[in-house]
Amino acid sequence: MEIPFVVNARKDTGLNNSKVGIWLFLASEVTLFGGLFSGYLFLRIYADYPWPERTLPILPGLLNTFILIGSSVTVVFAWAALKMRQWKKFQIYMAITLVCAALFMVLKGFEYQAKFNHQAVRILGDGRVNDFAIIEGHAHYAKLDHGEIHHAEKGEEGYFKHNRIAIKASEITFTLTRPVHDSYVGAVIEQAGGEGKFKLSETYAVKDAETGESVVVLEEGSPLNTDNLDLAEDGFVEGRIHDANIRTAFLKGDWKAIRASGNDDDAWRVVMTDEWKAQQKESSLKMKGHLVDARGTVTYKIDPPLILHFDPDAVVNHSSDQLKLRDDTTIKGEFDVAGSSLPMAIDGIDFRFTAQRAIEEGIDPAKAIEESWILQTPEVKRVWDAHQEWLRFQTERLAQKSKDSGKEGEDAYVPTESEKYRVNWDQMVSYQRAGYTDIYEKAKNGELDKPNWIEGFVGPNHSNEEFIKAFPDIVVPRDKIGFESTFTPKWNTYYAIYFTITGLHGLHVIGGMIVLGYYLFFGRKMYDSNPEWLANRVEVGGLFWHFVDLVWIFLFPILYLM
Amino acid sequence: MADTPEAIQKAKKLYTFIGLLLFFFTGITVAVATVEVLDVGGHGFDAADATLGLIIAAFKASLVMIIFMHLNHEKPLIYFFYGLALLMAFFCMWLIGWSKSDPIQYGNSTAADGFYNPEKPATDVHAKVEPQE
How far apart are CA B17 and CA A73, in angstroms? Predict the structure, then answer.
């Protein structure tokens, strides 16, 4: 079948159908991204926490902007080559466009990966303003050695991120009413070093529905494995179905009896009668002998007790003697304080939220910050003190600048909130390079040496031997963690909207690559039969690609520079 | 839109020039945001920086639309589609302004307050709201 108006224009629109189609699509895209930008604006203006201004590394964003602009030029060149019937040139320009798109995604991948590995913790303090101090960094790595959690290097066998909630477990109870998460079972067996370390505390049996005799599903002392849990679950479900049937049968019987006694009033009135209540009481006594009454849990003893650790995201709550997981699995034992702490190398200290809350509460922010738990660690205090020295220099410098330019009062230059209350990773490195001494003097003489954009390509590099010396180690006890997350949408609304918009934009890049790649690799046949048609197709694909570039032109300053 | 080989050859020069212009203005945007001498408004990021950054971005976007997307040579129907879409996008932005007139009190009532003003918390959830008469 021949598709009409793919090359020639329709008389009514003056355009070929492909062009009308792509522009209608692009119009819908404008509204989609317009809505998302509007969402960004809304979140930012009404944020009740200090917005993470300019926290993304600029260089990858800048390179990506150049890459997309460059690809916009090459895609239009590819179209021009087709119009001039230069197939070879078309191939070259289109191939460059695709390489640019791939590079864009690779850089985005690096950026995302850095965010997924970067840890942030909101520290609990005095229950008021100090509940809002934030540290950023990288969690240390750990491994299990004879049931104990020990420090490990990245890449070591069995290593994991040392951000776990640990308990010296003596008993673990699975709830059969909710699907048992195989991952938990597998993980705890692996940690314990074998399913035999767990022994069923008492025989799991249900009554046979026919004979009423007890049928053993799992013997006392059975090991923990998913097959056994499945058996218990099946027994429990069958028992529940049987009991439900018995209850329904009794209810039907009760209803018939009441109706037979001449009480056929409306249902809701019947159930209010004393006669009905008496009938129900009698039935429930009779029913007990028929019910299977399957138990909804199975408990395994762990003797001797073992350290088990869980991802904090899997733990709903914890106390000194038990943990509860998302699927209602309960682990009893002794909370492992050391194993549950979060050791990390910190590359960012942020007291902006503390300062904001302190001002709201009428407290001096400096005093609130001094009392923060974070600054009790001498290495961190050393960094903060160095920063105060730098801030003194910055304040004086800006005051002088205001004086020189005749700016007074509200117009005078003053340090930003970030400068006052936040220490970035690059500042930490510069203080370390300066030996934490005479920071004021060194700043004045321009001797503070910050890492350049290439050294911090996607942010703080914890593999860099020099940088890591500048990032103080701190061990955060679990009861000091108010909220923790990597830099993912969970952390705050900024990262939620950042990942939503850039993720959607990234999907557009991939979509564009598929379409443009199709023209490059499968366009020859069409070029031979109808080159103008292919040129039109490339123009339409190019329009989409320019739109992808256009969205990024706004995304880059908004997300990276503002 | 260029259709003859000569016109296309000429247009390619324009595309190259526009590409270079876009590179240049990207550099300007970054410089304005990172080099203190070029910082407009007060020290650090503020409304003046946001306005300038968005003006440059809008200018760059216009170049892409007009030259690369050939909007300088399009039929009225395309302008109609695109105009409607832009109207819709601006409506979304306007909703934010609309939300400002919400009777719930917020700290930052004007753009000049900036996005973070410790004197006037963005959402003063702790403030006691006087009952309206």
Answer: 10
